[in-house]
Structure formats: structure tokens, C-alpha cells
Amino acid sequence: MNIIFVSIPIGIVLIGLAIAFFFWAVRSGQYDDLDSPAYSILMDEDREERRRREGKPSETEDPSDRPDQQQLPSEDEDGR
Question: Segment Disordered: which positions (predicted)?
Fold first, then answer.
């Protein structure tokens, strides 16, 4: 029976915190645009943007211009 005297005030405080966080989220704009993130996954992105994000050279870029893609001379070219 004594646990009820502890559980009820803790429950009321938790409900009050949940309501306060909900109103904070509404005021800060968390629920302003619910549809755009769902549709953004369906939109096609630019091919160049996808290549840049994946780290691949673009179709118009010369791979030898990139320092991490330059080839080092092999042993055969050194004459050994």
C-alpha cells in the first residue's frame, strides 16, 4: 500500500514531463513538415552528386588530376 504513495507522484511527474516535451517540440517546429522527408527518398538525385558522395570520379573529371588516384611508377618502368 505504501508503494502507491510513491508511484502516483512519480507517474504524475513523468506525465508532466512528457506533456512539457511535447509542447516544446511543437513550438520548436518539429511537427511543421511531416511529408517532405518521406517523399525525399523517392526523388531522383543528380548523377554527379551521387558520384561525388560515393567518392567516384565524375564523368567529366580526369582521374589523373586527383592526387589519390595517380598511379605510381612500377618497377618495370624504372628499369629494374
Answer: 37-80
